[in-house]
Each structure stands twice: as structure tokens, then as C-alpha cells.
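Continuing the batch. This is chain 6 of the set; chains 1 through 5 are on the previous pages. Same settings as before, nothing changed between runs. Recording input and output for traceability.
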Amino acid sequence: MRLTTLPFNTSIPFTSVLAGFVAVLVGYASSAAIIWQAASAAGATPGQIAGWMTALGLGMGVSTLALTLWYRVPVLTAWSTPGAALLATSLQGVSLNEAVGVFIFANGLIVVCGVTGLFARLMKVIPHTLAAAMLAGILLRFGLQAFSNLGGHFALCGSMLLAWLVCKALAPRYAIVATLMIGALVAIVSGDVVTQSISLAIVTPTFIAPAFNGTTLLSIGIPFFLATMASQNAPGFATMQAAGYRVPVSPLIIFTGALALLLSPFGVYSICIAAITAAICQSPDAHPDAGKRWLAAAAAGVFYVLAGMFGGAITAVLAALPLSWIQTLAGLALLGTISGSLQQALAKESDRDAAIVTFLVTASGVTLLGIGSAFWGLAIGGVCYGVLTLARRT
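Output for chain 6:
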């Protein structure tokens, strides 16, 4: 099944469209609630939060489409989930205007980081094996969730796993299609889909004048900037490298940072390079030809725009879907990427010890100094890599 929707006469396989849809679904399902908590902590009204979701969806859609179509590689953008978690715990007692000031400050720092090229130089020195190990560690949690839900939701998750296995053996390209459809059918029949009133009205984002407080910028803005760069952008570029896609780092950082800076007064706290959702569009399930997997990312960009246009309905839609269905679908969609990343991480014998340390620290979920495990996995694994490499040379 093919859909022809691009103006330059490129046909998009249905599996690529589905991969883009699943990527956006996983992105929203995994962290939209955290963003609502962060906005609520700053005192935003439900209408303002809906406007934030609209602006975020449109920002991610425009940036994903622009970068993917320009470079012809699957470049997905996303909001910073670690950043949202940090904001949710840090914005209590901070005014909405000061929160917007934090967004502008942090996004400005990201643009400076891209212009100076500091981040690009860092990404060039990261060994490919460690980048793959970090990606595998990030995705491990999602792979485990595909099976951990069997205990409490055996009928739903078991049927999805069976559908995936049968179709993987008979028609591998449509394994996730079968998984999604069978899972949805079982959820509907078993009454796991909660129907409620969902408004499809488009909510227009409202401008919020920023206020800059020195103490707030230092205590929240700096940690937020570090968490965004270390726990979101770094894994995002590592994911692309592990998938075999080489793109210039600084232009992407400048573009996403500048767009987020422009939209900050409308609630766009960050626009970053995606990691987990990008892996879905960069996997063989999205397209057998690695040179055409950008089609899945382009589809994701369109779905981002649609999600942004109906930002007010996102929470209600997510609440209607069984969490176990979303987790199982995401985990099965990422199995190929997880196995491929592990293979790359352990392929070079001399790097295995450092790679396995990177993998385990990342998978541990440890947070130190407000920075997530992806950064620490790469940092500790990098130290191991350097020490062991030096030892072999002496």
C-alpha cells in the first residue's frame, strides 16, 4: 500500500506513514502529562496549557519537516522530556512570566552553543560504539515494557505480541501495522478504551510577556539548559550517528534553538533533536532502504502539525488509550533498533568494556546533579574508553 502525497513525486510506503504516526504517538504519550504538570506549576490556566501544546506541536512539526526535507535524512525534533521534568519540580512559586524568561534564557544559550560550534566538536570525539551503547541503554526501558505488561494485561499485550510474531515471520514490513490493529481491536472489545468528551477546537497560543529574575535564571535556567543539551540533544545526535546518519551538528542546534527562542513567549520551552521517537523512524521497519527512511520522519512532521492544531484535545485522547497498549506498541516498534544498537556497541572487541559500562549506566536511570543517565552513561563510558585505550598503548 502506497500513498503519494509529496509534491516531488515521491511515494510513501504505508509502513513509513505508520512509523511516523507511532513516533508522534509515543512522544506525546510518554511526556505530554509532564509538560502539563510543568505548566501548571508555573500557574498556567488550562486554556494557556492547551495553547502551549498547540505551539509545541506546530514548532516540532515545522522543524521536523524543514530539517528532514532539507537534509533528506530522518531528523525528528521533540520537546525536552528531561527538561520538562526539571521544570515540573522547579517552577513552584515562579510566575508564568518568569518561567517564559527562563525559556528565553535557556534557548538563547542553546543558540550560542550552536553558533560557537562547541557542541559539534564534542559530538565528533564520541566513539561510535559508545553512542550505540548509550542508545541501547535509553531504549532498553521501552523494550522491557513490551513484555512487563503481560502480567496485568495478558489478553491485550499477549495478542499484540502474537500478532507481531506471526506477521514478522510472514510479512515483516507490516508487523507493527498488525500489532497496532489487533491491539486496538482487543482494547475496544475488552472495554479498555475510555470514551469521553473530546473537543477538537483549535486553541490559539497566547503571548506571555517574559520577566527576567537573576536568581531564577541561575537556579532554574542553567540546570534546564544543561539537562536539555546533555539529556536530549546529545542522545538525539548519538541516535542519528548510531543509525548511520551524519548531519552537521551546529546548523541543527542553531535552527532548533532559534525556533524555540522565537516561540518561547507562546510556551515553547524547548525544541530539541529527538532520540527515542527518532529511533522508530530510523529503524528498518520504517523503510527497508536506509536512504528513504526520511519519508517516515516527514510523515511524523505532518502528524506533529496535526497534533499541534488540536493541542487542546491531546490529553483527552491520551487518557482514552490504554497505557499498556502504547507501551507495548512502542517497545515492539523499537526491538530492531535495540538489537542493532547492541550489535554495533559490542562489535569491536577493544571497546566492549567501555560500551557495556555506557549501556548499563544509561539503562540504570540514575540522575546526578539534575542531569539524566544518558549523559552519565556516555561520560563514565568515555572515561573507561580513554583509560583502557591508554593502557593498551603503554
